[in-house]
């Protein structure tokens, strides 16, 4: 059906009507008292969301731009950094490091596997001269649906004492607990089209006091992505460059919604959506791509057996039930499909997706499950949770 | 009155309802055929607007980000460049050049005066070794309302033969004729919240084949702002990083509107708005900040006599008539006010602004004009044009 699309990709995520309508208002001047007030409220609520009393800066960029800003503002060419890669986005930060001439050591895991915190511990413990300036990793690897063990890796970084920890939390911030100040995370990058529940167009970078210390001596060239400029203007409730004012109208609404729901409830909802989805997919006889103890609360990746074509699943889900699922990326293209359950998603959406998936599997001749098993598993889990 | 604001600042500019409502639609996946189609249509129409068969790339950035991308993709540290500065935005490009270690020579004019093309000619003619790699300037200087003589300066750059010409056309593209291919302009940067008639959040960079040649050897570090990545993906009707899909919904609508109006008509309308505004302001006994032969079609700056407080004019225009005018910037703060007539602005808006301005001047006790003279001058001009 036209205009019936239900987005279950890992972003853009569904946007609440109240936010869409707020964004449809006529723009206002970005150097006006009215806008300063909206910007100030959003910034306060962004700090609440990041659980920090330090800075959360808003940039007109995609998530990649936010993460690049988070990397290049605190380092200099030749600096030694550790980069964890186990998917497309980890690999992207390795590319950024290369573009800027950082001395990057890559800590790899297979796509679909989590990064091993022990590998970080070894490298960090061996670095007696404290030459490692930063540890860079993706928390929720959007390309695979793996959640890396940020808490443990961060503990090893803290034991090192010198290195900064820079986290791509694009699909984890607002979905799972990341207490920035309590853990001592130095840089957190995220993007508007994810748990923030608004369209793409705004990137966010949270910066710790320790990272600001590193900023003072960091020498990589930058201007538009120079976070010092954003910090200076944010202190006056404004921005160095024209902000996307209508995006802020939407952000104001969705941050208020998140506050009303409560951070713990937001996290619990995402966990419930993830666990329900995984239980139901298993009950339908489909293998999950990531292990239970490394599963992202934002995305569930499914690798169907040879007999079921992942591409066809997506095509039929779209054509018959107006549900958009995501394809695999790079070498996983056509091999997995990804179910997004991030942001403005409720239990009903998961039931709709699971029942639609069962109908599609039936049409594709998939066997090895009891009819109705997916919804039965989901309903059972929901009743108990 | 609440919700009655009429934006007459040089950006954000007013947005047509059709574009606002298009942007209020639920997002779609940015890796979907539907979005590819919208993106392809927008790109084609952007080329039409730039009068080019080369590339026009869309980035999630403000105008500054677009201009920085336009500079850093084609140069290397130490490269000699000429930068024209006669206002806040020209000065900004000098800052970008400094941040990236370019060897920049500044060609200055006072704020409110146009750049002198002769100064460019002299420098370019003296450069027998062809060491000047680029000439960088702002076409319409938003901070003052001055339109620099791009055509003549460009002619001198063409006579030099080697240097690229990079133009900040943020408040001129779509308001005044810039035939990119016919003139051989190498880089044109612009932003969505201006003549494009949508909110801020998208930046555009047009790139000539000659600039792409320079790209091959340019060494400044970049990743998010790497235009080569955007070009490669645009060939497949997509983007390297998540685009602001809802902004494209709006852009699709406003580019269609511009095509329906016709490029010559769009330019003629902006010229008429400018000339009408200037005639009316003069008739009200207020001095214009820029000379007639260097006036921007986007912004008219007014420097009232000592007896009339520019700040009070703006405050009363806002409070009594819900019209937002822009303040001066930097040392002109409080000394001038700027009337924006860019984008979705018609003759009626100018009459409303002029008649409101007269009412405000009366309230402030301004003398030296015949009551009604502003509207009379405007109406006379409109009748004749």
Question: Can you walk through the features of this model?
Answer:
2 copies of one chain form a homodimer. Chain A is α/β, with parallel strands linked by helices and 385 residues long. The first copy, chain A, has 2 domains: 17-260, Type I PLP-dependent aspartate aminotransferase-like (Major domain) (Aspartate Aminotransferase, domain 2, 3-Layer(aba) Sandwich); 262-384, Aspartate Aminotransferase, domain 1 (Alpha-Beta Complex). Helix content of chain A is 43%, strand content 15%. In chain A, the strands form 3 sheets. Chain A has a 7-stranded mixed beta sheet with strand order 2-10-9-8-5-3-4, with helices on both faces. In chain A, strands 1-12-13-11 form a 4-stranded mixed beta sheet, with helices on one face. Chain A has a two-stranded antiparallel ribbon with strand order 6-7. In chain A, helix 4 (88-99) links the parallel strand 3 (80-85) and strand 4 (103-108). In chain A, helix 1 (17-23) packs antiparallel against helix 10, helix 5 (117-126) packs parallel to helix 6 and helix 11 (263-283) packs antiparallel against helix 14. The mean pLDDT of chain A is 97. Chains A and B meet through helix 1, helix 3, helix 4, helix 10 and strand 12 of A and helix 1, helix 3, helix 4, helix 10 and strand 12 of B.
